[in-house]
Amino acid sequence: MRGLLGDYVSMTERNDSKAQLALEDGLEIRTKSTHGHNRAISAISILLLLATLALLIALIIVSNAKTKNQSQLSECIHQTEQTCNTAHCVKTAANVIESMNMEANPCEDFYEYSCGGWIKSHTIPEDRSSFSSFSVLRENLQVTLKGLFDKPKLDSDIHAIGMVKDFYASCIDVETIEAKDAQPLTELLTELGGWPVLGNQPGGDWREVDYNFEDLWSKMASYELFLLVEGFVEVNEKNSMVRVLTVDQPMLGMESRDYFLDDSKYGKEKQAYLNFMKGVAKLLGADPTQVDTDMDAVLAFETKIANMTVPSTERRDGEANYNLFTLKELDEDVPQINFRKYFEALLPSTDTIVDSEPVVNYSPEYMRQAAKLIAETPPRTIANYMLWLFVKILIPEISQRFRDVQQQYYNVLKGTSSSTARWRECVDAINDAMNCYCRMYVAETFSGASKENTKLMITKLKQSFKTLLESNDWMDAATKKVAAEKIDGMQEHIGYPDWIMDDVKLNEKYADITITAGDYFTNVLQNMRLNSKIGFSKLRLPVDKTEWSTGPAIVNAFYSSMKNLIIFPAGILQPPFYHENSPDYLNYGGIGMVIGHEITHGFDDRGRQYDKEGNLIQWWTNSSIVSFKERAQCIVDQYSGYEMPENGMHINGKQTQGENIADNGGLKQSYKAYRLLEQNSQEAMKSLPGIDLNSEQLLYVNFAQVWCTLFRPEGVTSRLLTGYHSPDRYRVIGTLHNSDDFARVFQCSADSAMNSKKKCVIW
Ligand SMILES: [Zn+2]
């Protein structure tokens, strides 16, 4: 999950972040459902649209009739099928056709076959490192939200809605932001004791005699910045009804530790990061010679820290990660750091902590090494480092000249050549910060029928998972029985939480926030402090497993292993994933696969470690675990073999295994669920006009078209180093390589590329 300002996980979502998995990497926001707009299309424009499409489709049919692949495929069309000729189906058919490349052979490269047209007709915007079908939905969502946030404030607006409009207005008020330049930032730095590198410039005046590590460290955490040693309050994985103090290794200034550690591969990126630090310090008036000395030391220090962190691929074993200490034991194990002082500064004064207070330590070895390094490092370097990370995330909130320096860094890291439009950044920031306010979005775009239909599909997908579970030949009966109980106990969140429609409750939720018109910087800081405070205030409170941890205006889906909960925000319940008027096979290729994907997360290499109550405990027999690991290794090896055409890098099969397992399970379950439906309904099988494919083939085409994507080479590097999902091309190809159903539906011969001889199957 992204926090208000970009890279940091916000505290209120932190509790879920370790165990909550998203359907897709990257920004979680942005969408416009077409429902509202369909209603607005006039009868005349529909007629015009139909006439144009009919012409287009006729042309396409004529041109495609000649292609070899197409004539092969048409042989397997079900004779009994009829065509769906509603306006929605005609429009959908045109979109599907435009995205395809029918010259390609589906049995050789199904990604090119399904997405070739889309890839040809799109380019990557200058401010993006990649662009995908998801991006289109997210950009549309931004437009919808802009329309809502931009509306003039009305006397009839409740307090909460009025505030979101004020917050947005303060963000797009570029004139005021430019006039203030760096002043809000330097005032903050002074308040925090000064940024040493600035000398006696505004925001500087740092004095070593006043420095204390725990003071600065806890001040940072009070703004949601968990630096060097992360210490916070999380749901206790071994007893998910309560919370516990936790400590862990930190996030770094660059998204992956590899950027710091492999100069032969990422020297350019590391240099750009150093230039970024130095550039910002100089713009704030620091002496150039001092900047070189100080920032070189900061980078050397952060590189040592990066080297001490454990790679994410080595952190997938929940039992091994979970190390229970008492506060006293932790203080003895890591004597250089005063954890008690830190937690006492952040917890509510009513929460007393004693020597026996439990603390879960997710990185004992890192903690010992880092504490020694911190004790040996000059305070000036540590203060320079911590404040640099704070400055870095606040750069989007100050004037353009600082953002230009940031853009030079992104140019190297992501390959982008311009910064994102201010209004888009503002929409995302406000949506992240106050996501419940997006009831404005729900009211405009989400229909009650979507919720009911999704519920029904979830029931069918769960049944599908259980049928496959029952028939698998590698898990013993005892484990199967408990696995079925986990499925039955899986909860769901669809669309949005009902309470956001209640004026009183919505106002209550945000009662502690005051938005100052014309002072965006202060509004942002206030939100960060509030999130931190809320997080730490929950230590002694029971966990409410029904609480929503995401907003409705998000194009993504999630699974929370500690709640055993699947989540489908309103933002994803739109085409190409779902539409109430779409033929069933499209919905099953779209949201059906997504539902199956999220369900399967409960049984991937990490999710399977949590029981039906969301507790980390071994509930599988040893022999079933051994069988699972063999099959998971097959998936790891398979995906590690895939190379990205953009830069020749390979996928990290270990890092992406959980998502790959979920993709494979999700598509299979959804296809099986659709087959059952099809057997009982001629309506479900009606194909699309102008496309010579049957309903089952179209299910696979829609599945693939959800993932049409363009990457810059830098975008691929960043995705492979930091993402938990395989790049989209291989989310399609990798999943289908393992699918007997797909090979049969497209009649792929035994020696065709898409029909792998070795198929990896778990669920
Ligand atoms: Zn996932």
From TrEMBL:
Q: Where is the Peptidase M13 C-terminal domain?
A: 556-761
Name of the protein described by the UniProt record: Putative membrane metallo-endopeptidase-like 1
User: What are the names of the required cofactors?
Assistant: Zn(2+)
One biological process term from GO is: protein processing
Citing just one GO molecular function, the answer is: metalloendopeptidase activity
Cellular component GO terms, alphabetical: plasma membrane
Q: Which residue numbers delimit the Peptidase M13 N-terminal domain? A: 106-497
Record keywords, A-Z: Hydrolase, Membrane, Metal-binding, Metalloprotease, Protease, Transmembrane, Transmembrane helix, Zinc
Give the residue spans that cross the bilayer.
40-62
> Which Pfam families does its entry note?
Peptidase_M13, Peptidase_M13_N
Which PANTHER family does the record associate with it? PHOSPHATE-REGULATING NEUTRAL ENDOPEPTIDASE PHEX, ZINC METALLOPROTEASE FAMILY M13 NEPRILYSIN-RELATED
